[in-house]
Amino acid sequence: MSASTLLLSLFKYKTWANEELFVGLAKVDAEAHKTERHTAIRLLNHIYVVDRIFVGHLSGVPHGYEGTNTPETPTLDALRDAVATTDRWYVQYVESLPPEKLAEAVPFKFTDGLGACMTREEMLAHVTAHGAYHRGAVGRIMAQLGNPPPRDLYTRYLHSAEPERRAA
Question: Can you give the pTM of this predicted structure?
C-alpha cells in the first residue's frame, strides 16, 4: 500500500469518525450537561482550528488564526458543518496530491510565531493523529455522562466501508 493510499483511507476514516461523533454528541442533553457539552464542543473546535491551520500550511495561504482555538464557541450544528467541509477538503487534497509531493518540505510558522518545517506527508499524518487524540477525549466525556461514544476504530471503519474485508 502506498503512503497516498493509506493517507486517503485515514482521511476517509477521519470523516466517518467525525460524523459519528457529532451524531453522538448531539444526543447529550444540552441543559443537564451544559459544562461537559461545552468542553466537548471546545475540544472539537480545537481539532477544527488545527485542521484549518494545516490547510493553510499545505495550500500556502494564510490561515488567519492567532491560536489553536477561537475565543468564541460555535454551536454544535455550525461546527459540524464546518468540520464536514474541512474533512471534504482533506479527502480531495489527498486524492489530487501527486505522490512525489508527499516528501516536499514546507516551511511555516506555528501560531506562537516560531518557524517550523514539515513534509506534506508529516503534516497530513499529524492532522489525522491530532484529531483521533482529541476525539478520544470527547468520547470519554460522553461516556462519563452515560452516553456511550461511537467506537472510533480504524478497523471498524474499514469493515464498514468495505464489508468484504470481514470474511469469515
Answer: 0.95
Q: If you average pLDDT over every residue of the chain, what do you get?
A: 95
Q: Averaged over 128-135, what is the pLDDT?
A: 98
DSSP string spanning 97-142?
Answer: S-GGGTT-EEEEE-TTS-EEEEEHHHHHHHHHHHHHHHHHHHHHHH
Three-state DSSP state, 145: coil
| Cell numbers standing for residue 14 | 477521519
Whole-angstrom distance, CA of residue 54 vs CA of residue 57:
5
| Inter-residue contact 152 to 135 (CB < 8 Å) | yes
Domains and CATH numbers, the chain: 3-165 (1.20.120.450)
